[in-house]
Amino acid sequence: MSSVIRLAELTDLDALVALENRCFSEDRISRRSFRRFIEVPRDRVLVAEQDGKLLGYSLVLMHKATRLARIYSIAVSDEARGQGLGERLVRQSETVAVEAGRIIMRLEVREDNASAIRLYRRLGYRQFGTYRDYYEDHGTALRFERRILFFEPKGAVRPVPYYPQTTDFTCGPAALMMAMAAQCPERRLTTLEELRIWREATTIFMLAGHGGCGPHGLALAGWHRGFDITAYVSQEGALFKDTVRSEQKKRVLDLVHEGFIYDLAQTDIELHHEPITISVIEDALARGDVPVILVSTWHLNRSRVPHWVTVCAMDDQFVYLHDPEIDVEEGETVADKQYLPVDRGVFEKMARYGHQQRLQAVVIVGARREMAA
């Protein structure tokens, strides 16, 4: 009798934990985490059993805002190795992901796990990245992906270095740093630079806590670091004033904005006050530029907060983003936030902030300028 692959149930917890402990000495998934993954409707835990004995499992995470799925962990017991069970678990993981409307399956594998790498390549997975110091023992992970729904991606995805924001309020600097590093790969991505850009580009006030960064400040920060910059902002005047109530704070925002406009006039930055169409992003990518765009996080995590992301690529159906915010409490890792495929229609809805004003803003980072000696 061959093994059967099915969705895990809470009654499988003991067997899952026992298999996890036999297969892995580090980076183990806890019983509590297994329970949460089984109970979360969005994710899938698949188990392979034969004659009532659990022989393997696959944990598939479904990103809540995109069409991305990820095999977070897969394990096969020693007694079932060499029988094709690993391949069956991967294929069934792809099936449940397709049923959930996912288009891309991703996974990570240790660079020294030659047999697993051979399997993934044979199944059509391609390596698209490397993540150093990924595992508990500081080992390196190779990142693989395969299109599991519709057609294979057209053309190569441009390599854009990934940098996660280190504070709640520095998504703008992190997104700008990724765009600049794509244009100048030797640039170092450091927390010091992230905070320096925030100090230059902050709007002073926004919502509660520290101020966020607006398009004018980010444009200036990119220009001062030697890059050609074009900015599109759909509104004139100070931005985010509706996020504060104090008239004094509104006045400060006005003064900060006036300062940004004065500084912009001393540069050759192109500033356009007009609605932003998806063709603006498409044309920028075609030129080799990297757009940094303001989005509403409602479509990412149901929170109405302005947020900056980096646009890496676009095809007929999807826009691919680097999102600098990693929610560790939700179990997210760097692997979850790189090259996120977002439906073009969803992206157009995301790329607006505010219920009434519907602000649109993008800072497009071009090539390095010839700097005067």
UniProtKB/TrEMBL annotation:
Keyword Chaperone carried by entry: no
Pfam family membership, one: DUF3335
GO molecular function, one term: acyltransferase activity, transferring groups other than amino-acyl groups
InterPro entries: Acyl_CoA_acyltransferase (IPR016181), DUF3335 (IPR021770), GNAT_dom (IPR000182)
Keyword Disulfide bond found: no
Sequence ranges assigned to domain N-acetyltransferase in this UniProt record: 3-149
Keywords: Transferase
Name by which UniProt lists this protein: GNAT family N-acetyltransferase
